[in-house]
Design a protein that fits this description.
disordered N terminus, MlaA, 11 helices, ABC transporter, 2 strands, signal, two-stranded antiparallel ribbon, 3% strand
C-alpha cells in the first residue's frame, strides 16, 4: 500500500482551487518582496501599484507565519502522510472539475473526473491513495474562472488579493462559485472546517518550499507572469498559441537558405582546420569496429 503513498507529488499549479490562495504562489518568495516599479504598467496589470502593496502585505504574513509553519509541517510529517494529505484534498477538487466541465461542454473530461473521484474515494480510501492516476485516468482541472473564459471572458486584469494571493478580475468573480462547489465548505462543525482548510493551505505551502529557488529578479513580476501564463495554459487545456514550428502543415524548405551559407570556406573562416582529419576519424569506410 505504501507504494501509492510514496508517489512523488506532481508539480503544484500556480492556482490552488478550493482553499484561500494565501501565499500559495504569491508567497512562495522566501524573502522580501521587491518594490521596483516600472514607469508604464503592463497592459494586463494596470493596477500594479495597488497589487504590489498587497503583495508586500502577503509576503510579510508568509515570512513570519505561514512559511515557518510549513517548514515545521514538512519536518515532522512523513512523506507518505504528506502525499496522502495532498491526494485527499485533490480528490475533493474533482467535484469542481466535474461541474465546470459540464458547464464548459466537456462531457469527456467530466466523465474522467467523475471516474477519478469514485475510484479514489473507494479503492483509494477516501482519496488518500491516487489509484486513478496509476490506472492512467487523468482529467484536466477546471474551475469557474476557466468556465468564464470559455464563455467569452478571455482577457482579464491581474489582481492580487489580500490573503488569497494572485488572481485576475475574472478568476476573482468565479471564486464564490468555486467555494460553493468545494465539499469542505459544507462541513457543519466550524472547528473541523477551519482545521481542514488550514491543513490544505499548509500542505500546499510546504509543497512550494522547494520551488522558491526558481524565482529570479523582480519577484512580483516573476510570480505575476508565471501565474498569468499558467492560467492561460489551463484555460486552453494545454493548447499553445500559433507557432509555425508546432504546426502540422509547417514544412522546412532548404531553398530559403543561400548556398553560400554552406560553402566549404565557411569552415576556414571559423578557424576550424579539418586538413589533419581523415575519414576514419568520423566513422568512414576505413574505420574499424
Amino acid at each position: 500500500m505504501w507504494q501509492w503513498l510514496n508517489n512523488e507529488k506532481p508539480a503544484l499549479s500556480l492556482r490552488s482551487k478550493g482553499v484561500p490562495l494565501l501565499m500559495v504562489t504569491l508567497l512562495a518568495t522566501g524573502g522580501c518582496a521587491s518594490t521596483q516599479m516600472t514607469e508604464n504598467a503592463a497592459p494586463e496589470d494596470p493596477w500594479e501599484g495597488f497589487n504590489r502593496k498587497v503583495f508586500t502585505f502577503n509576503d510579510v504574513l508568509d515570512r513570519y507565519a505561514l512559511k515557518p509553519v510549513a517548514k515545521g509541517y514538512r519536518t515532522i510529517t512523513p512523506d507518505p502522510v504528506e502525499t496522502g494529505v495532498g491526494n485527499f484534498f485533490s480528490n475533493l477538487g474533482e467535484l469542481r472539475t466535474v461541474l465546470n466541465s459540464v458547464l464548459q461542454g466537456k462531457p469527456k473530461n467530466a466523465g474522467l473526473a467523475t471516474s477519478r473521484f469514485l475510484i479514489n474515494s473507494t479503492v483509494g480510501i477516501g482519496g488518500l491513495l491516487d489509484y486513478a492516476t496509476l490506472m492512467e485516468i487523468t482529467a484536466d482541472k477546471e474551475d469557474f474562472g476557466q468556465t468564464l473564459a470559455v464563455w467569452g471572458w478571455q482577457d482579464s486584469r491581474y489582481l492580487v488579493l489580500p490573503f488569497f494571493g494572485p488572481s485576475t478580475l475574472r478568476d476573482t468573480t468565479g471564486m464564490p462559485a468555486d467555494m460553493a462547489s468545494y465539499p469542505v465548505t459544507y462541513v457543519d462543525d466550524d472547528a473541523v472546517r477551519l482545521s481542514l482548510t488550514a491543513l490544505n493551505v499548509i500542505d500546499i505551502r510546504a509543497g512550494l518550499l522547494d520551488q522558491e529557488a526558481l524565482i529570479r529578479g523582480d519577484r512580483y513580476r516573476f510570480i505575476r507572469d508565471a501565474y498569468l501564463q499558467s492560467r492561460q495554459f489551463e484555460v486552453s487545456d494545454g493548447v499553445l498559441g500559433d507557432d509555425p514550428f508546432a504546426s502540422e502543415t509547417f514544412e522546412f524548405d532548404v531553398s530559403d537558405f543561400d548556398d553560400a551559407d554552406f560553402e566549404d570556406n565557411s569552415f576556414e573562416d571559423s578557424g576550424f582546420d579539418n586538413s589533419d582529419q581523415d575519414d576514419s576519424d568520423f566513422g568512414g569506410e576505413e574505420a574499424t569496429n
